[in-house]
Amino acid sequence: MKSLLESGDAEKLLAASINGELPDERGRFGPFGGRYIPETLVPAFERLEQGVRKFLHDDDFQKEFRAELHNWVGRPTALTPAPTLSARWGCDVWLKREDLAHTGAHKINNAIGQALLAKRLGAKRVIAETGAGQHGVASAAACARVGLPCTVYMGALDMQRQAPNVDRMHRLGAEVVAVESGDATLRAAIDEAMRCWVSDPDGIYYLLGSAVGPHPYPWLVRELQNVIGEEAREQMLRLAGGLPDAAFACVGGGSNAIGLFYPLLADTQTELFGVEPGGRGPGLGDNAATLATGRPGVLQGSYTMILQDDDGQVQETHSISAGLDYSGVGPEHALLQAIGRVNYIMASDEEALDALGELCEAEGILTALETAHAYAAAKKWAANNPGKRILIGNSGRGDKDMPTLIQYPVSARK
């Protein structure tokens, strides 16, 4: 993959990223990103990009967005010290608590931001896709907040794994459409949402849930989610006495991780770790570790790292976590890996389950299965770096995962 970059490109691209110059005018993060879409969607994406450029950094939009984050979402979320984990791991462990945000995950930051944008663009209704259901719940809540009808596409398999969130979406007024095609998970749901958008690109706003897809979505989602890292950076300096030596976040599509990492990119003394789902093992189809085991290619309108076979066919994935069960990743993460600013590593299903259990017992926090992957990797790193300061992005709460967790009783794991 490094062959995609010329000598000296890494330093230039990191500087450009830190200076806010990426994506470029073509929607590229270095060699990654862009817009690979059918002709029928070009007007919709051009209209979306024009709207994002007009409104996103407009003072009135930012004032309304920040007010909703404070008054409705509940920001700033807490930075919580983890004394028991600190004692067990031999490090100073701090948790950025996105699980305390309204609807229980970081997804709400992006959802309310895009819902406000949809109103400004004159949309008649909103569609969204979801894997673990947290983005679906956030979209349903945000649309209720701004007064727009909402339809959520969700893989049939994910609907079984995340039944509580399906009910929450219904109660928040959203229609939930089961997607039976393909692998019946997040990738299929995104495909179906895209097809729906083509049918009425002027009247429908597609509220994409992660930092993936064609330009301008990876940029838009990052700009709405980087409030996580902005808050965490300020809180670490004020409450923890300094920036972390290492920061960890789980990565599926990558919205939580890019939100935490982006404001820390210039702080090169802080090592950044994106943790992907190692699933059952390293074999193709047994995990969803796109950056750790994938290759460059085009998926759902973006040039990024994807899981594919030798013939270039995108492969189905496996993860115990529905929210990480995706065969692609945001293009900005592909760049950050290529230039060496972020390390992308794996944690298996078993390691995630063990980490989730330890966090429950040690700190009284039931985290999401997605987030548990970050804890598993952080514990390993701590073993080799005693005395260091660690920040973990606690991206969501685990109530939604109870249908999965009850299959792994606590008594059977001890």
Keywords:
single chain; 414 residues; alpha/beta; six-stranded mixed β-sheet; four-stranded parallel β-sheet; 44% helix; 17% strand
Topology:
Elements: H1 9-18, E1 28-29, E2 32-33, H2 42-55, H3 59-73, E3 79-81, H4 83-89, E4 92-97, H5 107-120, E5 125-130, H6 134-146, E6 150-155, H7 156-161, H8 163-171, E7 175-179, H9 186-199, E8 204-207, H10 217-225, H11 227-240, E9 246-250, H12 255-261, E10 271-279, H13 290-293, E11 295-299, E12 302-306, H14 331-338, E13 342-348, H15 349-363, H16 369-384, E14 389-394, H17 402-405, H18 410-413
Parallel strand pairs: 4-14, 5-6, 5-8, 6-7, 9-10, 9-14, 10-13
Antiparallel strand pairs: 1-2, 3-4, 11-12
Helix pairs in contact: 3-5, 5-6, 5-10, 6-8, 10-12, 11-12, 15-16
Classify the secondary structure makeup into a structural class. alpha/beta
Strand content: 15-25%
Which stretches are low in confidence, meaning pLDDT under 50 for 5 or more residues running?
none
Q: Largest sheet, described in full?
A: 6 strands, mixed
Which strand order do you get reading across the main beta sheet?
A: 3-4-14-9-10-13
Secondary structure: number of strands: 14
Cα distance spanning the termini: 41 Å
Task: Tell me, rounded to a whole number, the average pLDDT.
Answer: 95
Rg, please? Answer: 20 Å
Give the overall silhouette: globular
Number of helices: 18
Percentage of residues assigned to helices: 40-55%
